[in-house]
Design a protein that fits this description.
Blueprint lengths: L1 H32 L1 H11 L4 H4 L1 H20 L5 H20 L4 H28 L6 H30 L1 H22 L11 H8 L2 H21 L2 H9 L4 H49 L4 H15 L3 H12 L3 H30 L4 H18 L16
Helix pairs in contact: 1-6, 1-7, 1-8, 2-7, 4-6, 4-15, 5-6, 5-8, 6-7, 6-15, 7-8, 7-12, 7-14, 9-15, 10-14, 10-15, 10-16, 12-13, 12-14, 12-16, 14-15
Length: 401
């Protein structure tokens, strides 16, 4: 009886902490992905082509991929809690700059800065989340954090798109600033000081985080995420020009994608705890089928909606498995590897957006999903191969009770 009473407040605080981390992830996920819904507005307002505006997606992803690990390396001994609120605070300021950016170049810089802080936040949040729960629930904890990003596709992206269409794209980023302040307050109030999964200084962490088995896992993540963002970056123009919908209907289709993404991420955390490697492979297979459906039936709104639902389930549903595998394979380099996982995903985002822009200019928006499909097929053997990577016997693995 006394044990239950003693542990209940701790369990409640852990839930509040995870919810706060999820809220922070919601904010940065909204900022990252809402750009897809207002890309055309930005292109028109700043007088650039749609494919050039797509560089805003690339800049953000490169910020995560390059800036995230660099800042993490520089702050490897800093308490994770301090990193969380510092990263989110500066992230909010970066979006405030975007609100007032009157030139495309300044907006690119703001996006790259926010991307670097996004990577730092997600890496620290993943490390903190796995330290808040028992080892057998780490996948679910990571799933709850990344669930914030998938929920951002349900609420943040469609609502941000509507806000941008009604009041201008600057209003979209202003909304991110307001939500960011709320998330910052929640993290300061509820997230305790928790050591991450790694140990030692930068050299010790890097030795484990850059082990070939981790790099192989990261490479598979690049391919898997990249194939998705070939198509996702230009999803709104595809829906308008190929499916034949516009305005609020585009937001509704993005909402369908977002709802199933949220379901997939929460469920994906549970599947990650059962078998993360198999979850990644099955997710890749479903992605191939969904992209095939999107390309083949692009003019049929109902079938496009079904394809987006299937894509949404696995698109973010594989993220907890990818992140958990990277952290586990890194052993004592878990803190640094957590950021590398986010970086790898966003190398995929950046390369996918770039390839999507090339496909858009070379073949037209109708063929962009076909290029994404080819990329997903290429990813399949790499994802299958990661099933044979083994987790090291290291002190990072918590001993069984």
């Amino acid at each position: 009886m006394s044990t239950a009473t003693a542990t209940e407040p701790g369990a409640r605080r852990s839930r509040l902490a995870l919810a706060s981390l999820g809220l922070g992830a919601f904010v940065i996920g909204t900022a990252e992905l809402v750009i897809v819904g207002v890309l055309g507005l930005i292109a028109d307002d700043l007088d650039v082509s749609l494919s050039t505006a797509g560089l805003l997606v690339t800049a953000y992803a490169l910020g995560i991929s390059i800036g995230g690990p660099l800042i993490t390396a520089a702050t490897i001994r800093m308490p994770r809690r301090v990193l969380l609120w510092s990263a989110l605070g500066v992230f909010v300021l970066g979006n405030l700059v975007a609100v007032f950016a009157g030139a495309f170049g300044l907006l690119i810089v703001a996006r790259a800065l926010c991307g670097a802080l996004h990577g730092l936040f997600l890496g620290a949040a993943s490390a903190v989340a796995t330290g808040l729960v028992a080892p057998e629930h780490r996948g679910q904890a990571v799933g709850l954090v990344f669930g914030g990003i998938s929920v951002s596709t349900v609420l943040g992206v469609p609502l941000g798109t509507l806000l941008g269409q009604g009041l201008g794209w600057q209003a979209t980023f202003a909304g991110v600033v307001v939500l960011g302040v709320l998330a910052l307050a929640a993290i300061l109030a509820f997230v305790p000081s928790v050591h991450g999964s790694g140990s030692g200084g930068l050299a010790a962490q890097a030795r484990h985080a850059f082990h070939p088995r981790v790099l192989a896992m990261l490479a598979a993540g690049v391919l898997l995420m990249g194939s998705q963002f070939v198509a996702f970056t230009y999803l709104a123009p595809f829906l308008e020009d190929v499916t034949g919908i516009s305005g609020g209907a585009v937001s509704a289709f993005l909402l369908v994608f977002g709802v199933f993404s949220a379901i997939g991420t929460i469920a994906g955390g549970r599947f990650a705890d059962i078998n993360a490697s198999l979850t990644l492979f099955v997710g890749n297979l479903v992605l191939i089928v969904a992209l095939l459906g999107l390309y083949t039936f692009g003019g049929n709104a109902l079938l496009v909606g079904l394809a987006l639902a299937g894509w949404g389930i696995v698109g973010f549903g594989v993220t907890p498995s990818l992140q958990l595998r990277v952290i586990s394979l890194a052993g004592e380099g878990g803190d640094l590897a957590a950021t590398l996982g986010a970086s790898a995903a966003n190398v995929g985002v950046a390369s996918g957006a770039a390839v999507g822009g090339w496909a858009l200019d070379a073949y037209g928006v109708a063929d962009v999903p076909l290029v994404a499909l080819i990329a997903a097929v290429i990813a399949l053997p790499a994802v299958w191969g990661t099933r044979f990577l083994t987790v090291p016997d290291a002190p990072a693995a918590a001993p069984a009770a």
